[in-house]
Amino acid sequence: MATGSRSARWSAPWPWWLLGAAVLALGAGPALVEALDVPAWQRNVDLEVYRAAGVSLLNGRPLYSFLTDVPNLLPFTYPPFAALVALPLALVPFGAAQVLWAALQVSLVVVICAVSARPLLVRCRHAAPVVLAALASAACWMLPVSDGLFFGQVGILLTACCLLDNAVRGRWPRGLLVGLAAALKLTPGLFLIHFWLAGRWRAALVALASAAGATLGAAVVLPQESVEYWGRALFDTERIGSTAGTYNGSIVGLSSRLGPDTAAGSLLWGALAVAVAVAVYGLWVAARAARAGQHVAAVAVVGVLTVLLSPVAWLHHLVWVVPGMLALVGDARSRVRVAAAVAVWALFSTPLDLPWRGARMLYDPDVPQAWARLLQSSYTVGAVLLVVALHLLVVRPARRGRGSLHGGPADGAPVAADVERARAGA
Q1: How many CB atoms lie within 10 A of CB 56?
Q2: Domain that holds residue 315
Q3: In a domain, 18, yes or no
Q4: Is omega for the bond preceding 30 within 30 degrees of 0, making it cis?
Q5: Chain centre to alpha carbon of residue 202
Q6: Do residues 223 and 118 make contact, with C-beta atoms less than 8 angstroms apart?
Q7: Tally of domains within the chain
Q8: Each residue of 115-126: pLDDT tens digit?
Q9: Torsion of Cα atoms, 420 then 164 then 389 then 280, to 10°
Q10: Does any domain span residue 237?
Q11: How far apart are CA 388 and CA 35, in angstroms?
Q12: Which of 82, 177, 180, 238 would bridge with 78, disulfide CB 3.0–4.6 Å?
């Protein structure tokens, strides 16, 4: 990925940065207010779980049997390493933790957009900060991000870690951040398989070593909690929630909502067959994307798969659609790709609220049940269609370009016209 070349970078005078900050405040600010302007018992309930885990370690109370206060009564469901990472949250009042976590989340959304939209930002030159602010604001009005802000979830952090590890040339060993993300929450472990299939064996080994090191280190510090998690809590599905609920965006969740209880057995086998097909296809697309230099698209595909293939995966876990949407945009020269990206934003936008709209329609006798069920599971279907769109509109053209242009432009690399304009000082 050509992130190191001078022409692939973008910069702007400070007035543009000030204007960008104003646009971000006006665009993302209302989304943040809408997500957090709720009764105190509803606000950042997942952040409360993380903080409670840190408090449990400090106070010596049981990590996996403690529940948060009434009425939420939520357990800690993450590995012991995540509890160690949550310790700083336990050192500050919950109100302060909420402010800091919200600021971190919005900052990480900006980082995700900056990395994912690099081709467009390079093309925009001085106006890049304003465009970046507009993109980040739009992302904050997508339900996975908005609900992540509302719940105080960790999904935005995991997406940023995996994106930076795959799509940015950092000073850390490639794979380190993915491994730490997998130690925090198991689902990013799918990136280890992606590294291997994409021929990035060193990154796969680094990710495996960092995940194992963090997990074993936590086991040394918290031996009893580690035995409890890996021996019992991990397999206790009742700690997570119902698979048939609207908020479950996985393939298993979609199948659980489709038919009567008498069809549960056949639906389960059908869901497994679909999941296997989606996994094989998605991992193949992601590997081809990585080999073509389209690392943002690869991250989006693998990230979406972590949601689709999990037995239970909440809709706010679909933060991966943000880099997927921006990978579709590219440098915005293709109208078809831009239109597809706009469709992705509309589908996952907070104002439309399609899954819950479909769930409410189930009680309307004038609405066909099939239509209501489709809307209820629209994020699951949309996630699969996003993988297909990235394959057809991003990966295939990039691979053809690499074949005809001796490697072709990777995501983050400017096209030839941009290089010529940069050299001419345009």
Answers
A1: 20
A2: 26-424
A3: no
A4: no
A5: 24
A6: no
A7: 1
A8: 999 999 999 999
A9: 130
A10: yes
A11: 31
A12: 82
